[in-house]
Design goal:
single chain; 7-stranded antiparallel β-sheet; 39 strands; about 35% helix; about 20% strand
Length: about 1100
């Protein structure tokens, strides 16, 4: 009989570090793991202190921890939190690489020892052994595991010595990094020099591993768990579709592994356990990566993460085994055999999951946002999101995954997207597939369709022939489908096509009929999907958790239910412009509606998120967000209600998941849509209708018009004048938006929006609508308003956010402050009045976000409306945290018919204190991953995530937001100023403040002249490009004395000058601000920062009154 391991009672308070903003390589999977950890710790009776800088996360909701610090994730800030809270233990293994690196820093600086804080989950020695490349290599050799031949370098001299011994090609891997940052394969000595110097700079300990390249070997990951009694389990084995050479985060991956023999699997399993034991991860989850030589089965160990990783979220969703939850319990002293499996309730967590289906993960990239960057995949991760799909076979799972990506593709070709291949011959395509790119899977499909042999494609790609053969199954089925039509195909053949994953859209393309006709033919013949359950045990035990996927078999496992149902459509894969903020909204709606007796049903396909956790909603359908798949869920839920004589579907929520569900709204039954009616959504998006709304309400708009052709566009511009802002309808994240200064740029912009351009290929409503062209108001302030309107017409203004960057920078990339700092009370009253009028006229029920521009004309401010979005916006989580009101929970209940006065009565709108603080949201940009792209802000959004600074003055809050976004605050030295003529006034004010703070100023000649006129000393006047005399910008930045660069270009986008200055700052890692207004905000912030000592306060302190729930400390 197993000895009971007691839960640790010597620990009372646990500090959990989150992973900070969403960046490439570290996305919302750590919100998912952190949220699970907070829940478990609270259930077990521990006091939870959480530190995280990202307001768009569920874990930073004040309900999930006893003290929630939305503060910058830096060692000084965490030291302050530890001093204030006195936690007994720090759990660093659930906040990605960020938490791990910070835990190590606190350990090395002696902070943990000083305050008596124990590291649990993984100790400092284990973290160092796994993360330090040299120590890991030694440890693996010591236990007899093979590693690639390699050497460790801390300088360029050492690196050159090592590469001489090993010989090219080699792979360079920096230590203590995430998402493969700084890694790469060097085929020649030039590439090696570049990679080695970049790698040393990317590693926080200036260490790189240089190893022989095993490009082309097969790559596998094992998710393993271990407890204090040394029980070990493999949760999931994941196989990469792409061979070594493509980062696992950028590869299509499949679970369970498909091509390992049982002997190979057992070898990897034993090796993974041996690795975990040697590294010394006492408890919790780890991810171990292997490469296997396809020639002889020889394997080497690549690396291990001694923490919950990106793949842990995938493994959890793939198997139903909640890795983060169980890792937390193990850290608190439980053993695997003592923890029951949530899904079966009968088996313990020490049972290894087995699955009888295939899971495919496919990444999504955003290369179209980064001009100048080649869409080539390598050892450094570049994807911004991913989808997961579940099917009974690999072909079914893969095709479901491809249509989940929302790239206008309906599966493996057999859709309009394949027309791109018409201009390529076989030789061109074969040479294209030799390079891994986002399009490679479709190119392979096309080659197979043209009859190119599996072996030939394998030679070109080194992808395992088994996978290519599976793609051939899809292609062969397609060839057969082309010989029949929707009337002549037999039911048996149609069912087979659906089992291979063909969507109704693909069939409609092949047969030349509408997808509605295909659906009717299919349903009339009883060919409908059934929904199976994810159960961790291949149906050996009954599953209690309603977590479903569709397939074409016989038995449906969706149970009958008698509660009223609300179906929430999720936001699909993360992408720039539509990220975790929208998942946050969907999760909040689910929580709010469950609490009042609705059965909540989530449909989503993103494995990284809290919304796809099996216990967030009453039922989860892991399905693509397409018309076909959503209608299938509606049908099965109607049947489920009918079987229990239940009331059925009370509503479908489409306004919380960003643009993804909104695009589906028009194809769903209008009577089922909860909240704002679809016609109101169209009223806001249709330019002609929207103009007449603004005219009726007498709300000013910038002059503009719509265009379908280039000639139309020229006519609009002749009327309103340059510069103009050009944008499509029905998009998010400023997709394909641009500011245009002349006719040539106008032509480029119109092409991008045409059917040949990249937006046209993505498809959806935006490509069918005319383009919007407005006069661009330069030197104006942009303002966002979030509001809720109920069925009785009452409007609650949630928040007014003033943008720090001037109009012309996408709202998602601009810092914004609430309450507004520089707007007059008259302007604020006007904004509230206009927002109320618009919400009323659009008959909004639920959330609305309205964007305004405030332009100073003479001494007065004029408010112009830019656009209204009758849906949740990306600022909702931030504003909810800033004001202490859960806006989405309120909106969800309003959408289902409750009024704001009802909610006031039952206490849901209580908790907000009058603002005595300022909150700042700042964007986090991924330019360090795309060095070829100019780091300039414009109307197309490029940020991947956000952080929040909250403090008693606007300056302090702004500085905190900059530190949280990764800026190293300059404390002394030189600030290099180079600003456009229109910004000279702001430049003078900024320089005055910076000289008062003791900084010296360097400036380009034009800026220097204006500063000198205003009696500001300029120590270095920087020569223009090509000038023979004087120091150049490049030399100045390279000299190392510049601590900050403020560079505002003359134009935005292609007109931006000073690209060489921005590039040099990026390469040297010098903080860079590309708008004069953010430079001034930082200068003002630094003044406050010098005069106020660092203070940290939990969110609960800002929002709860003494009687409700005040933190134990008095901060005032």
């Amino acid at each position: 009989m197993a000895v009971q391991m007691p839960k640790r009672n010597d620990i009372k308070k646990v500090l959990l570090i989150g992973s900070g903003p969403i960046v490439i390589g570290q996305a919302c999977e750590f919100d998912y793991s952190g949220t699970q950890a907070c829940r478990v710790l609270k259930e077990e009776g521990y006091e939870v202190v959480l530190a995280n800088s990202n307001p768009a996360t569920i874990m930073t909701d004040p309900d999930f921890a006893d003290a929630t610090y939305i503060e910058p994730l830096s060692a000084p800030v965490l030291t302050e939190i530890i001093a204030q809270e006195n936690p007994d233990a720090l759990l660093p293994t659930l906040g990605g690489q960020t938490a791990l690196n910070l835990a190590m820093e606190l350990e090395q600086e002696g902070v943990l020892q000083k305050y008596g804080v124990e590291l649990i989950g993984a100790d400092a020695k284990a973290i160092a052994t796994a993360e330090d490349r040299a120590k890991f290599k030694e440890a693996m050799i010591e236990i007899g595991l093979s590693v690639p031949t390699s050497g460790v370098a801390h300088s360029m001299d050492e690196a050159e010595g090592i590469v001489k011994n090993i010989g090219l090609p080699v792979i360079v891997r920096p230590a203590y990094i995430l998402g493969g940052k700084g890694t790469g394969i060097a085929e020649n000595s030039e590439e090696f020099t570049r990679l080695a110097s970049n790698g040393l700079a990317a590693s926080p300990i200036n260490e790189i591993l240089i190893e022989q390249s095993i490009k082309g070997w097969k790559e596998y990951e094992l998710e393993v768990m271990r407890d204090k009694a040394d029980n070990c389990v493999v949760v999931c084995t994941i196989e990469n579709f792409d061979p070594m050479g493509v980062h696992t985060g950028d590869s299509i991956t499949v679970a369970p592994s498909q091509t390992l023999s049982d002997v190979e699997y057992q070898q990897l399993r034993d090796a993974a356990f041996a690795c975990m034991r040697r590294v010394g991860v006492e408890t919790g989850g780890s991810n171990v990566q292997f490469a296997v030589n396809p020639e002889n089965g020889e394997f080497v160990i690549i690396e291990m993460n001694p923490r919950v990783s990106r793949s842990s979220a995938l493994a959890s969703k793939a198997t139903g085994f909640p890795i983060a939850k169980i890792a937390t319990k193990l850290a608190m002293g439980y053993t695997l055999d003592e923890i029951p499996n949530d899904i079966t309730k009968k088996t313990p967590a020490s049972f290894e999951p087995t699955i009888d289906y295939v899971v495919t993960k496919i990444p999504r990239w955003a290369f179209e946002k980064f001009p100048g960057t080649k869409a080539v995949l390598g050892t450094q991760m570049q994807s911004v999101g991913e989808v997961m799909s579940i099917g009974r076979t690999f072909p079914e799972s893969l095709q479901k995954g491809l249509r989940s990506l929302e790239l206008g593709r309906d599966g493996l070709n057999a859709d309009i997207g394949e027309k791109d291949f018409a201009n390529f011959n076989d030789t061109d395509l074969l040479s294209a597939v030799m390079t891994p790119t986002p399009a490679r899977i479709f190119q392979i499909g096309e080659l197979l369709y043209r009859g190119v042999k599996v072996e030939k494609i394998h030679e070109a790609t080194l992808i395992d022939p088994w996978f290519i053969d599976q793609l051939e199954i899809i292609v062969e089925e397609r060839r057969f489908l082309e010989t029949v039509n929707h009337e002549s195909i037999t039911n048996k053949d149609l069912r087979r096509a659906k089992r291979i994953g063909f969507s109704d859209n693909q069939l409609s393309y092949l047969w030349g009929v509408s997808s509605d006709e295909v659906r009717k033919r299919r349903t009339d013949s009883g060919i409908i999907p059934v929904f199976k359950t994810v159960d961790t045990c291949s149906a050996e035990f009954e599953a209690n958790t309603p977590y479903h996927y569709s397939t074409y078999e016989d038995t449906c496992e969706v149970t009958k239910s008698e509660k009223p149902k609300v179906i929430i459509l999720g936001s699909g894969p993360n992408r720039i412009g539509q990220g975790i903020e929208f998942d946050y909204c969907c999760v909040h709606a689910s929580f709010a509606l469950s609490e009042i007796g609705y059965e909540t049903i989530m449909i989503n396909c993103n494995p990284e998120t809290v919304s796809t956790d099996y216990d967030t909603s009453d039922r989860l359908f892991f399905e693509p967000l397409t018309e076909e798949d959503v209608k299938n869920v509606l049908d099965v839920e109607k049947e489920s209600a009918k079987a229990a004589n239940g009331p059925g579907i009370a509503g479908v929520i489409v306004s919380l998941g960003g643009q993804t569900p909104l695009k589906l709204a028009s194809s769903l039954p209008p009577e089922l849509i909860s909240g704002t009616p679809p016609d109101s959504i169209d009223l806001a998006e249709d330019r002609e209708r929207w103009n007449s709304v603004c005219n009726q309400l007498e709300i000013p708009q910038p002059p503009g018009g719509t265009a379908v052709t280039f000639e139309d566009a020229v006519a609009v511009v002749e009327r309103v004048g340059y510069p103009v802002l050009i944008r499509p309808s029905y998009v998010l994240g400023g997709r394909a938006m641009s500011i245009v200064y002349d006719k040539e740029q106008l032509e480029d912009a119109m092409y991008e929006l045409s059917s040949e351009g990249s937006l046209g290929k993505e498809g959806g409503l935006s490509s069918e609508r005319p383009v919007l062209i407005d006069r661009f108001l330069e030197d104006a302030t942009e303002v966002d308003v979030d509001a809720i309107r109920d069925v009785n017409g009452e409007v609650l203004i949630g928040g007014i956010m003033e943008h720090v960057e001037e109009a012309g920078v996408h709202s998602g990339d601009s810092a914004c402050m609430t309450p507004p700092v520089s707007l007059s009370t008259t302007t604020i009253a006007t904004l509230e009045e206009y927002a109320t009028l618009i919400a009323d006229r659009l008959a909004v029920i639920g959330l609305v976000n309205i964007q305004f521009v405030v332009k100073k004309i003479g001494n007065s401010e004029t408010v112009f409306v830019i656009e209204a979005n009758p849906r949740a916006s990306r600022t909702v989580p931030f504003i909810s945290k800033a004001i202490g009101v859960p806006l989405v929970k309120v909106a969800a209940r309003v959408m289902l018919g409750e009024t704001l006065s009802d909610l006031r009565e039952n206490g849901m709108l209580v908790g907000s204190k009058p603002h005595s603080h300022t909150a700042v949201k700042e964007a986090v940009l991924p330019f360090n991953r795309f060095p070829e792209t100019d780091a300039i802000l414009g109307p197309e959004m490029r940020s991947t995530g956000e952080v929040m600074g909250i403090d008693i003055t606007p300056g302090l809050a702004f500085v905190k937001s900059q530190i949280a976004a990764g800026m190293s605050l300059p404390e002394n030295g030189t600030v290099f100023l180079s600003v456009a003529d229109r910004d000279k006034e702001i430049g003078v004010e900024t320089a005055k403040l910076l000289t008062q703070l003791g900084f010296t100023i360097a400036a380009t000649s034009g800026t220097a002249a204006v500063l000198s006129e205003n009696k500001i000393e300029v120590t270095d006047v920087v020569a223009k490009l090509g000038d023979k005399s004087g120091i150049t910008a490049l030399e100045l930045i390279e000299s190392g004395k510049v601590g900050l660069v403020i560079n505002s270009p003359r134009g935005r986008g292609p007109r931006a000058d000073g690209a060489h200055i921005r590039k040099a700052a990026g390469e040297r890692g010098v903080p860079l601000l590309t708008t004069a207004s953010s430079g001034l905000a930082l200068a003002k912030g630094l003044v406050d920062w010098r005069t106020h000592p660092l203070k940290v306060r939990p969110l609960q302190h800002f929002h709860y009154s003494q009687s409700l729930k005040q933190s134990k400390l008095d901060f005032d």
